[in-house]
């Protein structure tokens, strides 16, 4: 690949900084790197490949001469600036939810639907973090036995809500341990020593009683897997874990799959690592998944309550496969 001019929008944020790390680790061929963020960060410096890069303010003219822009600066920033970038001839890989369900925009998890990448018209969307790790595991099972229904409950890390949310969890934890009242700014309830069945933290609920995050899992799964018939129900929960989303996933398939067959299919699946030895207490754990671009699956068992049901536990680093790593994989395929 000829070296590219690459921009990272939201380079000072949690996902943006992971994007820089992944670009560096995977030796992405970069001719020039532009780090963009809000006016607040103008003049800050970041390190990339041992060199200092100054953060520039994102403006409508930031994309002249840029080949690929990785966006992770929130939905409203993407809505406003991704079209400017595309118009300037740049291909955007957008981590926000702004464009995901647009029929003109491919929604891509490379292990599942890399074939959708060439359909882009300047913008490619990176799916929701919880959806990405789920579909990486479900795709080989769907190909083998046709998944009819998915029931998923998530245990989502605080880093998915950004830097300020992580700071809030630590501040609240310190407060509780000191016998003080935890103070909430980002989350509607204390996240320290608690679980909150509401994601995102504001304006979450839709008329049907599901949250936006839950509906993302419902709708994005169908789009990425290219099958509108897969029925999905989700409950998404924020838990006091720094990084690494965990999911309890139960599927119902048209054709019976045994746990052994599922384990075998998954052991050959790209991007998936089977960790399933309950006798030795081996199963995926968030703390072990952090730092890896792979998705881990274990606790695979046949559902006692359904003749063609399978239950499993899926874990991945939400900032990597759930965001930065998936985005860089897409950029590599571009
Ligand atoms: P900044 O650091 O200047 O606020 P996180 O999700 O970890 O909080 O990170 C959000 C990222 O998105 C940060 O890099 C932040 O930049 C960036 N960002 C937020 N709002 C804007 C905006 N209006 N224009 C450009 N970048 C933005």
Could you characterize the architecture of this molecule?
The protein has 334 residues and is of the alpha/beta class. Helices cover 31% and strands 25% of the residues. The protein is built from nine helices and 13 strands. The strands form two sheets. A seven-stranded mixed β-sheet has the order 3-4-2-1-5-6-7, sandwiched between helices. Helix 2 links the parallel strand 5 (68-71) and strand 6 (91-94). Helix 1 crosses helix 9, helix 4 packs across helix 6 and helix 4 packs across helix 9. The radius of gyration is 20 Å and the shape is globular. The mean pLDDT is 98. The site of adenosine-2'-5'-diphosphate has 17 residues, from helix 1 and helix 5. Adenosine-2'-5'-diphosphate binds next to helix 1 and helix 5.
Secondary structure topology:
Blueprint: E1 4-9, H1 14-25, E2 30-37, E3 45-48, E4 51-57, E5 68-71, H2 75-87, E6 91-94, H3 110-113, E7 123-125, H4 129-145, E8 147-156, H5 163-177, H6 212-225, E9 231-238, E10 245-253, H7 259-267, E11 272-274, H8 286-289, E12 295-302, E13 309-316, H9 320-333
Parallel strand pairs: 1-2, 1-5, 2-4, 5-6, 6-7, 8-9, 11-12
Antiparallel strand pairs: 3-4, 8-10, 10-13, 12-13
Helix pairs in contact: 1-9, 4-6, 4-9
Bound molecules: adenosine-2'-5'-diphosphate.
